[in-house]
Amino acid sequence: MKKMAKKAKLKKTNDERILDQHHIEYVETHFDWINKGKDALAEAATMGVDPKSILKTIVLQANKDPKDYLVVCLPLEYELDLKLVAQQLNKKQVHLADNKNLINITGYVHGENTPIGIKIRKGFPIYFDERIKVFEKIAVSAGKIGRSVLLKQTDLVKLVAGEYIRVAE
């Protein structure tokens, strides 16, 4: 008699464990934006998740100061206006952090960055595109490429002591 294969239970990411420790409800989801691009958004839509509620996490460096990093979360398909972000935060200038050095800056490689772990481990200030306020639930990276968590927007913003700003006109 053949044994039926058990469905493999995915090991929780460190960021999912942080959510568990803070008693924040979430649903694990998969949106592989890095490899699938817009197809990942179409998949999300078929699962009932508004593609504009899926956020990317952008790490910025202000004033070329090696200690002045900040994080902006905005919908995947949107771009940010670096001059506007600098103006909103009263910084002389902001630019994208060095992608090749992200692991040393945040502890994550490109595509894994999440406001959850970055805030808890690094303490960087976290900002959210004010356009996400309309969504009850949003999705952010779970700290692993292609893996996300869907959770209440207000729970995430509170956990990371986030602020809303305008990131584009």
TrEMBL record:
Residues 38-159 form the YbaK/aminoacyl-tRNA synthetase-associated domain. InterPro entries: Prolyl-tRNA_editing_YbaK/EbsC, YbaK/aa-tRNA-synt-asso_dom_sf, YbaK/aa-tRNA-synth-assoc-dom. Pfam families: tRNA_edit. One of its GO terms (biological process) is translation. It is an enzyme of class 4 (lyase). The keyword ATP-binding does not apply. The keyword Lyase applies. Its EC number is 4.2.-.-. GO terms for molecular function: aminoacyl-tRNA deacylase activity; lyase activity. Belongs to the prolyl-tRNA editing family. YbaK/EbsC subfamily. This is Cys-tRNA(Pro)/Cys-tRNA(Cys) deacylase.
